[in-house]
Amino acid sequence: MAESDLEAARTKRLAQLEAKLSRPPSVGVATPVAALALVGALGLLAWQRADLEYFYASREPIDLGSEGAYRFEEARSNRYAQIHGVPTVRGAYWLDGSTTQVAVGLRDTPLLVRRSALPTEHWRAGSTPPQPDQRSFSVKGRLLHRADAPKLEQAFAQIDGWGEVKPQWVLLAEERPGSNFGAMAWLVGLTVFAALNAWLLIRGLLSRRTRRQSTAASSSQG
Fold first, then answer.
1. How confident is the model at residue 56 (pLDDT cuts 50, 70, 90)?
2. End-to-end Cα spacing for the chain
3. Which residues contact 81 (CB under 8 A, 6 or more apart)?
4. Residues facing 142 on adjacent strands
5. How many Å apart are CA 167 and CA 148, to the nearest integer?
6. Cβ neighbourhood burial of 118 (10 Å; 0-12, 13-18, 19+)
7. Nearby residues of 31 by Cβ (< 8 Å), 6 or more positions away
8. What pLDDT does 178 receive?
9. Contact (CB, 8 A) for 78 and 142
10. Calpha distance 131→34 (Å, rounded)
11. What pTM does this model have?
């Protein structure tokens, strides 16, 4: 084959490659969009990290003790814990969907317990909250430091203001490690979404590099 034919074949092949690279990929999104989606997914994963850690936390509860023998030196945020105590005479009530939730302090502790309202605790939004059931009780659930429970800050502030206890911890009653499969499914979905966008981002960056190299080679041939 003559040198001119080789040159023509090379030029044709470069033109084909440039045309192919200039077309948008058949699957995926633009590189900047993939980068933004990846950052967003990683941010959501970081925000949900505590739920993931608690899902795999020990099923053996930390025992915080009972009246006269509390052991809050054992307290660890985002761990399964148990305690026995006497409730404060006032509690914070609110609606979570159609369920009435109650935050009640435990006397002589820095703890409040968030639980569903008992049958004896009838309350309607806008009405005067009833006195929480005054029987002592045992409870197990997810223990969080006040700083790790911003959604409950209003309840903390209310109970703090009443002066019976000065809560720095909250126990989310009946929340056990390994039980929140909805949160786990959400986390798995975010992980898959992040991995997909990482792949799209890497592919887009490699495609750009190949395109630049092809353009440079074409220019040098010219």
1. confident
2. 21
3. 61, 62, 63, 64, 75, 140, 141, 142, 143, 171
4. 80, 172
5. 13
6. middle
7. 200, 201, 204, 205, 208
8. 82
9. yes
10. 53
11. 0.66
